[in-house]
Design goal:
single chain, alpha/beta, Rossmann fold, SH3 type barrels, Elongation Factor Tu (Ef-tu), domain 3, 3 domains, 5-stranded parallel sheet, 7 helices, 17 strands, globular
Length: 366
Amino acid sequence: MTKKRVVVGMSGGVDSSVTAWLLKEQGYEVIGLFMKNWEDDDDSEYCSTRQDWLDAASVADKVGVDIEAVNFATEYKDRVFADFLREYSAGRTPNPDVLCNAEIKFKSFLDHAMGLGAELIATGHYARVRERNGAFELLKGLDASKDQSYFLHRLNQAQLSKTLFPLGEMPKTQVRDIAHQLGLSNAAKKDSTGICFIGERPFRDFLNQYLPTHKGEMKTLDGRVVGEHVGLSFYTLGQRKGIGIGGDKRGNGEPWFAVHKDLKANVLYVAQGHDAPALYATMLHAQDVSFVAGHAPTQRSIAAKSRYRQADSACEFVGLADGFELQFAAPQWAVTPGQSAVLYDGDVCLGGGIITAGNPDLSPLV
C-alpha cells in the first residue's frame, strides 16, 4: 500500500517539529515546507526568519524528512499586509494571523503542497478536524489553554478536507516532552508571540514606518482634554499601556483606557477603570463573514468570543444581508472593530466575521 504524502508546514518551532515526527511515526510520507512570508527587514534583530530556517532544517534532518523553503513574501504583502495597513488606517484593529491562515497557510501553501504531489497538509496548530455526514467540522484543540481555532475560523470545507492537525488531541506539555525525548535542537525554544514582520519590537515603532502620525486631542467622555494622542491608528479599544496620560486628572487613582475613536474629529476618548461602562457592549455587528460549513448557523443560541483568549460567551445569532449581529447575555469587554467575532457550538467552531461595531455606553458623549 502506498503511503499518503503529507506536506508539513515547518516553522522552526517545537509544535510543527513534533507534528512532522508524529506523522512520520504514523506511516505518512512526510515532506517539510518552510514558508518565508516577510522580506522588508528580515535581517533585523526582530525578525527571526534565518534562525527559524536553521532550526527547521536541523529538525528535518533529525526526524529524517526532506524539507524545502518557499517564498510567499509577495503573496503575504498583497493579501495580508496591505489589508493590515488599510484596517489600521481606517482606525480599526485587524488580526493578521486570521487572514494569514486563510490566504497563505491554507491557500498558497496548500496549492504548493498539492503541486508537490501531496494528498494532505499538516500544521502544528492546536485544533481538530472531524468528518461527519460527509462534511468537515473545525473543532477546538483539547488543550484549552492553547486552542487556536479562533485563528482558523475562516477555513472552508475544501481546505479542511485536506488538513491534519496532529497536536489537536494533545496538551502542550506532552509536545514539549516529546521534543526533549527526541533530542530536538528546538525542544526548549520559546513559542512565537507575534507575527514575523513585527516580532518583539515596539509595535508603535513598527507601524510608524508605514502609517503617518496625525496627533490630536485625548478627551474624557464629558469633553475634558486630558492629553494628546500620536495618531488614532496607534491605539486599540481597551488599551491601557501607552496611553501616556501623566498623573491622575481626577484623583481616583484608576488607570486610563482607550474607549472610543472619533475619526472625523481625530479625537481619542479615554475613561478610567477596567470596569468603565464605555468598555462594555452587549451587542456587536460583523461583516466579511466566513462559515466553516459554507452557510450561516441555523440555530439562534450559540456562543462567541470577540477576541482571542476570551471565554466563550452565550449569545443570540441574527443573520443579516451583509453579515450578522450578536446579542450577548452578559456584557463583553472592549468589543473592537477590526477584530474577529468567532462563533461556537460547544467545541465546534462555526466560523465568524470582522467586527464593525458594538454598542458601548458612551454617555455623556452620545
